[in-house]
Amino acid sequence: MKNVLVIGSTGQIGSDLTMALRKKYHQGTIVAGYIPSAAPTGDLLESGPAEIVNVLDGARIAELVDKYDIDTIYNLAALLSATAERLPLKAWEIQMDGLLNILEVAREKHVAVFTPSSIGSFGPDTPRDNTPQDTIQRPTSIYGVTKVATELLSDYYFHKYGVDTRSVRFPGLISWKTLPGGGTTDYAVEIYYAAVKGEEFVCPIAHGTYMDMMYMPDALKAAINIMEADPRYLHHRNSFNIASMSFDPEEIYEAIRKEIPTFKMRYEVDPARQAIADSWPNKMDDTCARKEWGWNPSYNLTSMTRDMLRHLREKLL
Ligand code: SER
Questions:
Q1: Residues 165, 250 within the same domain
Q2: Which of 296, 299, 290, 180 is nearest to 247 (CA)?
Q3: Angle between helical axes of 301-316 and 187-197 (0-180°, round to 10)
Q4: Selected catalytic residue, list 74, 143, 187, 299
Q5: C-alpha 130 chain-centroid distance
Q6: Which of 8, 147, 200, 237 could join 264 via S-S bond, C-beta 3.0 to 4.6 A?
């Protein structure tokens, strides 16, 4: 990995990943791809090239691959689960037509591709606890449908054309830099903002709802390490279960209360998000990722909570 195009570089993952890639590959060129309604600012804009690119414009993707001699594309353009449920056709267009554009460019120009999958690729028939790497994937959300199709299409391009596609199934991602938007797991980010601002948190997800979650530094490590892994040891490709922590709203609330004892939370469950959350696993088994490319997360709920609160205090207060 040397010259990288990040599509969706101003989103929750992209804004952190682009900077992490620039730090790691300073000999190469890391292009921050964005759409005009989400233009980069600050460090992201100043530390390297930034180019307008819409995932629906295959010709533009090809042009940028040529211009910067790109060898790897991180495809981070997506609508998250709750938004996708409101705009299913749009979600299909961005997630599927966009992916096909990228895979076609990758096939023609020999570029490696990372397109994240998610805990959302599972459904109510999937074993909930220690969800195996290879198991039933019959999601009931459109987001999940596109994620399973992404996994299959990515593997198809690898087997049929030899395109170097690899990915991970991300848990809910928690970060202090850029807010997610329209996801079912967003509550686990918003709760920290409320705590630092001294506000009561109104939780849209019910007590007892467990989901896999991950702190952004671990997610970045996964996204970079999977693309650097020795392909000889990759038995799987699209996509690997990765896990680091699983909690319900009560447990994250208690973790924050250890640091901010006056913090208050009440529940006002959002039925749309709750239905999605109820169809997802409690905790994935990530043995294959550990064995095949050495996945090993660094953060747990306690260490993430301390780090989040420290950064958010600096950012917000
Ligand atoms: N965080 C995503 C969502 O909640 C799941 O991958 O939609």
A1: no
A2: 299
A3: 50
A4: 143
A5: 20
A6: 200
Q: What is the per-residue pLDDT for 20? A: 98
248 contact partners, CB below 8 Å, separation of at least 6? 205, 207, 208, 209, 210, 211
Lookup result for tokens 């990943």: 17
**pLDDT score for 60:** 98
Q: Are 70 and 3 in contact (CB under 8 A)?
A: yes
Domain that holds residue 39: 3-171
220 in a structural domain:
no
Output the pLDDT for position 149: 98
Closest residue to atom 3 of ligand 1, CA basis: 183
Paired with 79 in beta bridges are: none
- The token duo for 129 is 């606890």
Q: pTM (2 decimals)?
A: 0.97
Return the ligand 1 atom nearest residue 171 CA.
Answer: 6
pLDDT in tens, 222-237: 999 999 999 999 999 9
pLDDT less than 70: residues of the chain: none
CATH of residue 187's domain is 3.40.50.720
Judgement on whether residues 141 and 182 belong to the same structural domain of the protein: no
- CB of residue 120 inside a 6 A radius of ligand 1: yes
Inside any domain, residue 234:
no
**What is the pLDDT at residue 261?**
98
Annotated catalytic, 193? no
Q: How far apart are CA 159 and CA 18, in angstroms?
A: 28
Query: Which residues, 6 or more positions from 188, have their beta carbon under 8 angstroms from its beta carbon?
Result: 172, 174, 213, 247, 252
Residues 132 and 186 in one domain: no
